[in-house]
């Protein structure tokens, strides 16, 4: 009996020893080898870079591009536009768009040749209130590059538009113009750089249009501000001084662009 118990004890001992050896071998096989990244390890820890999952593509914008080449600060501030007390003009910059096939109001009313603006940064802002009301438009054409050289280009454009304005009554449109600021006037509101300005009131029988036009060349930028009505507008023209209007549209151009 004692012999059988001894044999049983030895058998159990052998089984336990073998189990311990198998368990130890399994643990060794599962243990990571130093320096080898585990499949779930972060790349920040292992130093291995894993490609990020690409986010889902967002919707494609179909909005037309804005006239980003003309900074917001270049436009006449709405509260300095004539008739703002009556019309409550919105910010012109919010309506800005590339000039495209549109042209200066001077050319439209006086049947002038559309001005070529190739090589320029340009935009227009139009607030059209329709018949019986006042509307406003500002056009900005800037020639980037050397201020003196490109200033010659800008002033050539100004002279072309000024001649169209002066000769409006001789155009095929039947319109007439009265200059309220003499041609090639200096700009009191601009302290540096070349600047010339002219203003006029234009009447066109086509559509019974009355327009007030302010045109200036400031450094290498040409700007035109025009306000017009068709028929008899509700608000009466307030007769602002031309220089007050020019002071609202010219000086900031030398801050936005070098003059």
Automatic annotation (TrEMBL):
PROSITE patterns (alphabetical): PROKAR_LIPOPROTEIN (PS51257)
Top-level division of the source organism's lineage: Bacteria
Record region (Disordered): 32-62
Name of the protein: Metallo-beta-lactamase superfamily protein,putative
Record organism: Mycolicibacterium fortuitum
């Amino acid at each position: 009996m004692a012999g059988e118990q001894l044999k049983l004890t030895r058998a159990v001992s052998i089984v336990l020893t073998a189990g311990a050896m198998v368990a130890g071998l399994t643990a060794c096989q599962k243990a990571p080898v130093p320096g080898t990244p585990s499949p779930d390890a972060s790349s920040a820890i292992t130093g291995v870079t894993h490609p990020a999952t690409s986010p889902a593509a967002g919707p494609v914008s179909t909005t037309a591009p804005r006239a980003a080449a003309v900074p917001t600060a270049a436009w006449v501030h709405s509260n300095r536009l004539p008739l703002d007390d009556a019309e409550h003009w919105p910010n012109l910059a919010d309506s800005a768009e590339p000039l495209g096939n549109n042209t200066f109001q001077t050319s439209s009313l006086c049947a002038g040749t559309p001005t070529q603006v190739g090589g320029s940064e340009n935009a227009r802002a139009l607030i059209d209130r329709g018949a019986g009301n006042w509307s406003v438009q500002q056009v900005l054409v800037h020639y980037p590059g050397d201020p003196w050289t490109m200033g010659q280009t800008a002033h050539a454009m100004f002279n072309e538009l000024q001649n169209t304005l002066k000769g409006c009554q001789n155009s095929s449109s039947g319109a007439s113009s009265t200059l309220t600021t003499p041609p090639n006037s200096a700009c009191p509101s601009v302290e540096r750089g070349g600047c010339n300005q002219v203003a006029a009131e234009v009447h066109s029988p086509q559509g019974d249009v009355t327009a007030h036009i302010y045109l200036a060349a400031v450094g290498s930028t040409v700007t035109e501000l025009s306000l017009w009505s068709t028929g008899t507008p509700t608000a009466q023209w307030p007769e602002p001084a031309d220089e007050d209007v020019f002071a609202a549209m010219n000086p900031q151009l030398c801050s936005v662009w070098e003059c």
